Amino acid sequence: MQVNFKLNGTPVVVDVEPRMHLADCLRDELRQTGTHLGCEHGACGACTVIVDGAAVRACLMLAVQVEGSSIVTVEGLSTEEALTPLQTAFRKHHALQCGFCTPGMLTTAHALLTDEPDADGDRIRAVLSGNLCRCTGYIPIVDAVLDARAAYRKSDKR
Amino acid sequence: MKPAPFEYQAPATLREAVDLLASDPEAMVIAGGQSLMPLLALRLATPSLLIDLRRVPGLDAIAIDDSGIRLGARVRWRDIEDDRRLETAHPLLRETIAQVAHYQIRNRGTVGGSLAHADPAAELPGIAVTCDAELTLVGVAGTRMVRAGDFFTGPLTTVRQHDEIITELHLPFWPSGRRWAFREFAQRRGDFSLAGIALFYGEDQEGRVANAHVGVIGACDRPQRLMEVEALLNGRFIDEGLIREAAETSARTVDPPEDLHVPAAYRRALVATLIERGLRSAAQHRSA
Which domain holds residue B242? Predict the structure, then answer.
């Protein structure tokens, strides 16, 4: 089936089998491999992308269901030249080791702070509980997200 | 973790969706897909055709009036969480739904999907049964209403006929001044709970319990009300003695599954503890 959607601002057209989930479509059809696939049944959160402003698990959505939607993946968060304040905070706080969960952490935290730039530590921990990390123990990740809030508050006021 | 092949259609009307469903005995309905997609990935479900409700109009509203609350089948957990009217219109619903699954799943998971999937530990079916809610089902033969207490017949099993689509859940009006609580326990945040309880009651002029409703999830093969506990509470004043009696009665009356997570005796004890905590908390808080 042919599906039309916007990927990181650019209109794309793909021809996929109905059974292909969105994460495979992004990775295998569109070669956007920033979105990582861990469990492929909605348990790990690694494949989180932002569909029409809402963080969703790309393995729990069929590619054919995103017809007409606007999708942001980790590739769409920053430009080639510079890291975003959220990415900078991850670097500063050593919020990653192997990096496998990082794209999902970044997209989830980006969606959260865009909607709730004042999210407190409890809220951040509750939201990130849907993303598994096996390296860092979460503390530096939560610290990084807390640190990045200032930048989202600023962009709010523009 | 790749689903078996299937056809896909996204009809523009409910009528078309029902007709498609009726035309193929192996067809299934998808909305948010947060229960169905894992089943497809694990090939526990292998439909020939998926009928997506995303284009069907009129299924995504939360309507509140004197008769209660109508939740369209495609209302998402996030919509319930974001609707500030529900803080007074149905605080039990709002508090309970805030504990469903994780952030990303809450952006997709729907009312109709949870009811149709009928996991015995799912929160919304528990609230529907506890509150005496009614489901609206539309099939080839027309529309029918089913009480939530009659809808669930076992794990992942309901009285829904193959050609029927759930369109709405109606929760009866929530009067002010009710006392209520929801408690559940999961090994990790966002996981299905090992067991949970929902309860509410009114009070007569002297403060005795009236119209107690007590429901459990995860502790039986389907969400259930505990009539014995309700009968015990009605007409009495809540005190520590009654709370303990209610907890013991609840442990005796549930029929918990024995599974790889915990033994049945653990779930009985857990239900008793949750009932105890729920009743204690309800006695301290009253809804506006």
Answer: 179-284
Tell whether B280 and B253 lie within a shared domain: yes
CB-based contact (8 Å) between A1 and chain B? yes
Decide if B108 and A130 are in contact by the 8 Å CB cutoff. Answer: no
B43-79 burial, b at 16+ Cβ within 10 Å, e below that, comes to eebebebbbbbbebeebbebebeeebbbbbbbbbbbb
Both B195 and B272 in a single domain?
A: yes
pLDDT at A53 over 50: yes
**pLDDT class of A88 with cuts at 50, 70, 90:** very high
Span B202-224, pLDDT tens digits = 999 999 999 999 999 999 999 99
Tell me if ipTM is over 0.85: yes
Nearest to B33 among A24, A60, A129 (CB): A60
What is the pLDDT at residue A156?
56
Q: Which residue of A has its CA nearest to B76?
A: A54
Enumerate the residues of chain A whose CB falls inside 8 A of the CB of residue B9.
none
Residues of A in Cβ contact (< 8 Å) with B190: 129-130
